[in-house]
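Continuing from the previous page of notes. For each protein in this section, the sequence appears first, followed by its structure tokens. Read the first protein now.
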Amino acid sequence: MRMVRLAVAGTMMASGMLAFGVAPAQAATYCSGWKQVESFQERACVITESGSKIRHRHEVRNLIDRTQSTQVTTFRYINGSVSVCKSAQRVSFSAHQTKSWSCVSTRISGSKYMTRGYITKQGGGNVGVDSRTITG
């Protein structure tokens, strides 16, 4: 009888069912493709971090072998309403460096979430990128 119990417990542990019967939820990441703006690339993401959190992330990377800067702005959209994650600020990047900015929203079932990021071209004018919209 003892051998049977150990075999069942071993099988349950291997399948992740022993501790509370379920495995923790994995974070899901939904990013736009990388968009090139002069010698930078940018993308926007929404990430479901847990049952109650949505992370809005904007990533920017320098594509060249020298330091350069650009202005970066990041917004989050919840059900179409916008708020600032990162206000417009000039940011310096080392050669081939990637930086990211993020903020967290409380996840509400049925609400829609999106991230929008902008960088400024050298001659002026903002170029934006949107993550896909997900439903909480």
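Done with the first. The second protein uses the same format. Note its length before scrolling.
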Amino acid sequence: MEIWINPACSKCRTAIGLLDAEGADYTVRRYLEDVPSEAEIRAVLERLGLEPWDITRTQEAVAKELGLKEWARDASARDRWITALAEHPRLIQRPIITADDGTALVARTDEAVQEALARGCEQVVIDGVRARSGTNE
């Protein structure tokens, strides 16, 4: 299991706390420091079953600077959105947990973390940092 996190994010810290309380074996990726490539973002989107605009934090200052709210949300614009997420990882919604069963979840609620645990999580990303289980980063 891997979780993509931002250590400054309270929802990410809560997710880590729940994983630790369950004794889960996971890796932390601090995605602001260990920025996912476009290929990694595509893979996570496939696992999530979502589009890039579905995991974009449109209220971030950089989103406003880029004018993301006006961007098309269709197949023709998909690559543009993915590039923006790779170039500006702060735009990526967090935390994201990838499960051993090949799926992934945006784990912003306790229920989503529990669902990830039930699936046998493989990867969780919290603002771009990778860590081992129990590191509480």
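What the second structure shows: The mean pLDDT is 88. Residues 67 and 106 are 24 Å apart (CA to CA). We return to this in next week's lecture.
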